Description:
Blueprint: H1 3-42, H2 51-84
Helix pairs in contact: 1-2
Amino acid sequence: MTRTRALLLLWLSVGALVWNSVFDLWLSGASREYLLRAAMWELGRGPEPVMAAMMSEAVRAGATRASAWTLAIVGAGLLTMRMRK
């Protein structure tokens, strides 16, 4: 395996790690938000939250943000590889 191919695989692995981490972080924040709203609803201080609607929006937003961060990080890595030649 050439050095360039090894670096490419490394950057793609970093990209997969970043995407999964950002997506998981976003969804865990959304689940905490749901639990907070559910507790407020039980106390009579807000409307009843709908989990399906909240998580659907969280998945969409999380995938968008995770993809943007991954594109930025992997893009910078690939640009660095290209400039070193």
